[in-house]
UniProtKB/TrEMBL annotation:
Belongs to the glutamate synthase family. The keyword Transferase does not apply. InterPro entries: Aldolase_TIM (IPR013785), GltB (IPR024188), Glu_synthdom (IPR002932), YerD (IPR027283). SUPFAM superfamilies: FMN-linked oxidoreductases. It comes from the Bacteria. It holds the Pfam family Glu_synthase. The chain crosses the membrane at residues 7-23, 29-48. This is FMN-binding glutamate synthase family protein. Residues 151-470 form the Glutamate synthase domain.
């Protein structure tokens, strides 16, 4: 039988004996003896333990395998993958954010690295008569007919909770938002002192855990909500129905991140996984959802109020849309979160295989509101892997009024995509509650980078619009974005997708597969599946 798998262990034993003998006469050999003694002890433990067959069969050698496996993502990211591989963001995308955050040269030499003849390559067509836009401070009015309307930038910080991110990261994001006059979404982790410290505009997200406005049982409490909503910085209220990274699951803050301070702000138990309920208790039907939105709007003194969702069952979204049409209780805005999103912890199956990607989800929401003739009364925001001006242009061309970014602004803070957000060991101090890590994040410097990233991205968006002969991103439509669908075929998004006409749903069910399947049976008084969907389950054992 081959002894090669024990070779490292045997060599360590022999070296321990040899260096031990030398060390008796020359103390300079003592360090070598200590090293081989440690390796010998570790190898002996490997042979004696019974939990890992690999360690018993390959004492010492198994640890080299474990070590290489642990740094596999870093090896691939820095040495193996090409600049354009998106896992989840390519090196080119990260470099673009870093350059714009630092306000250094972001031009590139010698032509594109993109395969312009590859399937799914996209571009925006330019005009023979480029426009001249004096300002890149593009804005959209939300809740214009409310007592306290808000003029939002078309590029803002997506929902990321204090808890998922460090106190220093929250401070820097909010200060950057203050300087650039754009908003900072709190995420569902509540309105913390760090969000309010620097005076930047806030969108307060209310999730199913009602953090910051709940009682001990996790139920919504009006008086607590009114106190938080009364802050002048809080410009809008957002009810979170679901989020892209884990739709239908509820937010997750691992126990390692639930410090005493976070527990006090959220109203939960310290050192225990903080998992939001998968469903709300303040409402149970589409109509009740809209009534809750209206209730929050009134309690906030008339601040624009809406909801965020990741699209799942189409009939549930259609039920909400029908409730809007029937009641005329309208949210001021809807934020569509794509399944490709995610900044913190999420179960593997949820982050990989649950929810509709942003493009299809956005178009479904946009189409439905257009078809009900409600689109001009409800604004739409969108989030999902947005880091560049072209990402913003494409998303707005598909129906959004503005865009949010989470991970893009994390990169601006210095995130290196180490994929350790859920471990509390973030190497850059962005996604950790360990003060030994986050206290080294310089808030002043990182706030400048957040501001720079926003400003330089909007400057690039202005240049794109000028090249296309447009005056404002609101003029972008699906006809402006082209996509290669094969090596010899190109289609505009307007040709690839079915876009409804204003009021079309009021007259008939359009020739659109999803509407044909689910619109007629969707209900404003229930999220329940249509009868024909339930019928498909007949014959299964329960």
């Amino acid at each position: 039988m081959s002894l090669s798998r024990f070779s490292a262990y045997l060599i360590s034993l022999i070296a321990m004996v040899v260096t031990g003998l030398y060390a008796r006469h020359n103390l300079q050999w003592l360090w070598a003896f200590a090293v081989f003694l440690g390796l010998s002890i570790l190898g002996t433990i490997d042979l004696a333990q019974k939990k890992s067959t690999l360690r018993r069969n390959y004492p010492l050698l198994a640890h080299f395998r474990f070590g290489l496996e642990s740094i596999g993502p870093e090896i691939r990211q820095y040495f193996v993958e090409s600049d354009t591989v998106e896992t989840p963001f390519s090196r080119l995308e990260r470099a673009l954010v870093y350059q714009r955050a630092k306000s250094v040269n972001d031009t590139r030499p010698f032509g594109t690295l993109q395969d312009v003849y590859g399937v799914d390559y996209e571009w925006i067509n330019h005009s023979m008569r480029p426009s001249a836009i004096p300002s890149d401070d593009f804005r959209i009015d939300i809740g214009a007919d409310r007592p306290k309307p808000y003029s939002a930038s078309v590029f803002n910080i997506s929902a990321m909770s204090w808890g998922a991110l460090s106190a220093a990261a929250i401070r820097a994001l909010n200060e950057g938002a203050r300087r650039g006059h754009f908003y900072h979404d709190t995420g569902e982790g509540s309105l913390s002192p760090y969000h309010l410290e620097n005076g930047g505009d806030i969108v307060w997200e209310i999730g199913s855990g009602y953090f910051g406005c709940r009682n001990a049982e996790g139920r919504f409490v009006e008086e607590k909500f009114k106190v938080g909503a009364a802050h002048e910085q809080v410009r809008m209220i957002e009810v979170k129905l679901s989020q892209g990274a884990k739709p239908g699951h509820g937010g997750v803050l691992p126990a390692a991140k639930v410090s005493a301070e976070i527990a006090a702000v959220r109203g939960v138990q310290e050192g225990v996984d903080c998992i939001s309920p998968a469903r709300h208790t303040a409402f149970t039907t589409p109509m009740e959802l809209l009534q809750f939105v209206d209730r929050l709007r009134n309690l906030s003194g008339g601040k624009p109020t809406g909801f965020k969702l990741a699209i799942g069952h189409a009939w549930e979204w259609f039920g909400i849309a029908k409730a809007m049409h029937e009641s005329q209780i309208l949210p001021d805005f809807i934020v569509v979160d794509g399944a490709e999103g995610g900044t913190g912890a999420a179960p593997a199956e949820f982050i990989d295989h649950v929810g509709v990607p942003m493009h299809e989800a956005l178009m479904l929401v946009h189409n439905t509101l257009v078809g009900l003739d409600l689109r001009d009364r409800i604004r739409i925001g969108a989030a999902g892997r947005i880091v560049s001006a072209f990402d913003i242009a494409r998303t707005m061309a598909m129906g959004a009024d503005w865009c949010n970014a989470g991970r893009g602004f994390m990169f601006a803070l210095g995130c290196i995509q180490s994929l350790s957000c859920h471990t509390d060991r973030c190497p850059t101090g962005v996604a950790t509650q360990d003060p030994r890590r986050w206290k080294h994040l310089d808030v002043t410097d990182k706030a400048t980078r957040v501001h720079n990233f926003h400003q330089n991205t909007l400057h690039a968006l202005r240049d794109l619009l000028c090249a296309a002969g447009l005056e404002h991103p609101g003029e972008l439509g699906p006809e402006h974005i082209l996509r290669r669908v094969s090596p010899v075929e190109v289609r505009s998004l307007a040709a690839l997708y079915r876009f409804l006409k204003p009021g079309e749903l009021l007259a008939h069910i359009p020739d659109h597969a999803v509407f044909q399947q689910f619109w007629a049976e969707a209900r404003s008084d229930s999220f329940a599946a249509p009868a024909k969907v339930s019928a498909l389950r007949i014959g299964k054992s329960v």
